[in-house]
Amino acid sequence: MKDNISVSKKLTISVIVVILLIGLPIGGLTKEVKDVKIGLLLPMTGPMSSLGELNKRGFDLAVEKINREGGIKSLGGAKIGFVLADSQSDPKVAASETEKLIAISKVPIITGSYAGSLCITASAIAERHKIPYWEVSAITDVLTERGFKYFFRTIVNTTGYCGTAIDFLNALGYKKIATMAEDTIMGVTANKVFQTRAKEHGMEVLQVVTFPHSPTTFNSEILKLKLAKPQALAVAQFTNDAILFVKQMKELGLNVDLIAGTYGGPSDPQYAKALGELADYTCGVTVYNWDMQTKGSKEFVNNYLEKYQQEKPGLHPSYCYMGMLALAEVLERAGSLDADKIVEAALKTDIPETLTGYGIKFDPKTHHNIRATYASVVQWQKGELVTVWPERFASKKVISPMPKWKDR
Question: Number of structural domains, the chain?
Answer without folding.
Answer: 2
